[in-house]
Amino acid sequence: MRKKITGVIAVIIAVFMLAIPIQSVDAAPAKFKNCTELNKTYPGGVAKDSKVKNKGGKTKHKPFVSAEIYKSHIKMDRDKDGIACEK
Predict the structure, then answer these.
(1) What's this model's pTM, rounded to 2 decimal places?
(2) Sign (positive/negative) of CA torsion 31, 32, 34, 39?
(3) In tens digits, what is the pLDDT along the chain, a chain of 87 residues?
(4) CB under 8 Å to 20, separation ≥6 — which residues?
């Protein structure tokens, strides 16, 4: 009798485990075509870390800090100050 109950519980647990959606931990950051597209989501651009300073002067918006997103858009950092597409 115990073996049947244990088997039923194991099947129920397996069914619930399959029903739970699993998100990937290593999800790739969004890739934008150009700065106009990136600025729709991140109005101040994307900084590689919170310690970078903007070389271009005053900006309207504070940049979003994300090393992964910055790394995938490094070519959009024209002045090489660590902030891509700053406004």
Answers:
(1) 0.65
(2) negative
(3) 667 777 677 777 766 666 655 544 456 677 999 999 999 999 999 999 999 988 877 888 999 999 999 999 999 999 999 999 998
(4) none
